[in-house]
Amino acid sequence: MKRKAILLTGILVTLMLVAGCSTRKNTAGTRFYHALTTRYNVYFNGNEAYKAGLQAQQQGNKDNYMEMLPLYPIGNKETTGIGTSDYERAIEKAQKAIRQHSIKRRPIRKPGRAYTDEYKKWLARREFNPFIHRAWLLLGKAQYQKGDFPEAASTFSYIVRLYDGQTNITSEALIWLSRCYSALGWQYDAEDALNRVNNDSLPLSLAVPYASATGNYLLGSQRYKEAIPHLEKTAKNEKNKQQKARCYYLLGQTYQLLQQPEQAYQSYSKVIRLNPPYELALSARIRQTEVMPTANSRKITGKLLRLSKDEKNEEYLDQIYYALGNVYLAGKDTVQALSAYHKGIEKSTRNGVEKGILQLTLGNLYWQQARYAEAQKAYAEAIGLIDKTHREYADITTRSEILDELVPHTNTIQLQDSLQHLAGMPEAERMAVIENIIAQVIAREEAERKAAEEAERETNRLQMREEAESQLPATSIISKPGQGNTTTPQTTQPAIGGKQDWYFYNPQLVEQGKAEFQRLWGRRKLEDNWRRKNKTVVALDDFEEIDYSESEDIAPKDSIPNSQENEATESSVSPEKDPKKGTTDSIANDTHRPEYYLAQIPLTEEAMQASNALLSEALYGAGMVFKDRMHDFQRAEAMFERLIRQFPDFAQADEAYYQLFLTELAIEYYEKKGSSAEKYKAELIARFPESRYAKTLADPDFAENAVHGKQREDSLYVRAYEHFQMGDTATVRAAEHLSSEIYPLGQHRPKFMFLEAVTRLQGGETERFLATLKELVQQYPQNEITDLAAHILKGIQEGRLLARDSNTFGSIWQRRSAELAEAGNLLGDSSSSTAILPPDSAFSTERNVPFLFILAYEEGKVNENMLLFEVARYNFSTFLVKNFDLAFAHERGIGMLQIRPFNNYDETQQYFRRLYSNPEMAARLSGMRAILISEANYAQLIKQYSFDDYDAFYRTHFSSIPEPELKGYTLDEPLLNLPTEEEERQREENLPTEEDDPENGVIFGD
């Protein structure tokens, strides 16, 4: 009998569980079952994976203690990829829990139940599984810790809407939403999310997370003083010991930034008392020395020097010498500071961001001292070591680019001045200087030899040590810095992805290689002839006609002689055959011999002329960089004044006078000082009356044109371009003539020249067209229109013919490839390799092929991060199962957010209509072009067609296709738990139906 009762009970329980499996029903039993299953099955596994990811992230996090720490480890870019697999598993489990256990159908109510306000609020919920909100929060947290901040922000935004009215859930979601916005740099949105948290009803368990998120937002907004109390509360209540030490270290840095040394010292002391990892403890001790009173500078430097001599700190010498340099700098001892920074770089073994900070600090010091060659080298090294997200990265990149232009000029000036000074010395003094230089060279080489030997010995010592350690058993007694002798199992971890095997798997080595390349060559685009600084400058000789009737035997300048000539040449110049010649060459290239240096000194009249030519060009180049790039008008003035006084016959003397005049005006305007602008204006007009610069300054309307000339030139060009499109040749030529008379130095001058040249081509004046293009290329080598002109000239040189009926210059939406389209059309190219078929022939009308949806816009006019977030949020909240890939692309001045995959045109059209039927999204996307295009047609579009070409094709072949009649959600799996139409109608009318009592043993809270 007892067995039968047990069996019957088991059968009943089984039947109840089977009945409760469906999310189509919403009863007390189904809610209990799905809450229980979610908690102890799918959610449990996902949460365990999430905790494993957090642990891996904490262990693998690498902080840069020389700069402000981020409050959360995920703030370090290198930490983002750690624990990814665990977070992806957590995301998968959270999505599975939501998909399988979400209950959205409203329950059936028993008759007679009171319709109270509380009951109505419960009925108004959009989710009835009382535990599923934890799966939603887990999903957002895992996305955040994975580093996918836009996706995480979309998730938390959806949670806030889904659980509207449930304060405990929405408050936690808003706190995490603020963290997402802060990570994206959207501080205004982060503040707004925190302001939406109801502090009056904030649960006690969320008080610390709220303070932490607030402190994080205030730090990101650089409101350090306001962040202090929130950071203190966060540090005090943090339970994880290592994170607690990080919080106190960050608190000390904040106090130090606010110049509150006592509080900073105490915070660093708390870090040390927590016995954190050795590097963090050492960094806290170093920081303590920085906040000690400057009166104790001798004591501070002594402490740092003692730390530098401790073998345990060998790996961290860069940090120690950085702090030592800062102490010297605070005491106005720049020489000692520079020495300390250099020693830190020399002793650095990590070649990471710490060394990059040292190089950055050195570069800034050298920049301030106008030691530009040293600054250039330091910045080039720093760029390869610090992250692109560093607050000074953009500034030092700009400075490095400026110095790449300036330093060759300043080095030339310094070298030629020195050589000319040596040339003017008596021979005895000159030889004494040379002998001194040779002695320095020998001493430097000897020091380098000794350093190399020492480095080799150190390498051998480390290699022997590693070999000895590799022979130890798997478990050995190893003493680590800051720890006692502990028995630690030692295992060899393989490098993930083989990052230590190949050069290009190591991003730091790659960046260092880039920096070395840029130091030697500057910044070069990856393209043919990359060694040439300016590939659009085409010499006149490049466009001369080739005489193919010339005989081949009149080629005495052939670089490859025939065999007899070669033998004769070898017999006459070979060092083996002519030992005297070989000895002479050896002496001339030997840096230990005076002949090497004497050969560089301009001791003859011809050599002095060559030196002066180099010097004058360098003075002009340096003056232009000081004036236009650095806005250092005092140094620009010095360069130009020296140029016109020392080299009055300089080829560009009129332009030098004009630039000096502009420099004097800038000094007068920006520095509120008297200037010699009128003096140099008069000299320019007197010396070069026919110069275009003299004519510009002599114009009585010069002052007015200087103020309003740009707007007037813009208007004139717009008018000329409009008439060019209408084929009004006379007006275009008149505008070009007016431009040459009134605005010879205007911004649009090369465009006027180009338009006028094209009208000449259309009128059959081919020679004049080519002559104008050559003049344009030579006078304006850096202008954007020069590329097009150079391509046309190159086509002529290759024997291609010109077409007279070309009018292919439009907006960015009309742009094709510059070389294949504009140049191709102008040249009338009909070759199969570059011929452009009509769009109707090139594009396909096939609909049942993969499509993509594109939001296109002009580059620079859209906040791409915000666009990505809004579209990701829309996709996430609209298609709960379907995942879309979002990616940016840029082409011909057009930015594109590409959304894929779509199986066919009908799916793409449905997505387009649903997107723009949302009023909020339609408003946000106003001004952008929505493009529905197949993958194959997109490849054709990018290859050689304009966006307007495809738009015309689409309107002809696709716009007339009626909207497909699609039932259900073709872009997503059906949502089986959606309410019926009748239930939706009743819900909208707020009509009571049969429902269970929510208080009758049902879980609808935690």
Summarize the structure.
Helices cover 62% and strands 4% of the residues. The chain contains 42 helices and 6 strands. Helix 5 runs antiparallel to helix 6 (149-162) and helix 30 (702-726) packs antiparallel against helix 31 (729-742).
Cross-sheet strand order for the largest sheet: 4-5-3-6
* Structural class computed from helices and strand pairing: mainly alpha
**Termini, distance in Å?**
40 Å
SS element count, helices: 42
Shape: globular
> How many DSSP E strands?
6
Runs in which pLDDT lies below 50 for 5 or more consecutive residues are 474-501, 533-577, 818-834, 964-982, 987-1006
How much helicity do the residues have?
A: 55-70%
Q: Which strand-content bin applies to the residues?
A: under 5%
If you average the pLDDT, what whole number results?
Answer: 77
**Major sheet description:** 4 strands, antiparallel
Radius of gyration: 37 Å
